Amino acid sequence: MPTTRRTQQERREHTETALLHAAAELVVEQGVRSLTLARVGERAGYSRGIVTHHFGAKGALLERLARTTQTGFVPGLTDLPPGLDRLLRLIDGYIGALGEAGLMHRAFLLLWAEAATASELAPLFRERDEAFRADLRDDVTAGITDGDVRPDADPAEVAVAVVGQLRGIGLQRLLTPEGITTDTLRHSVTDHWHRALRTP
Question: What is the pTM assigned to this prediction?
Answer without folding.
Answer: 0.82
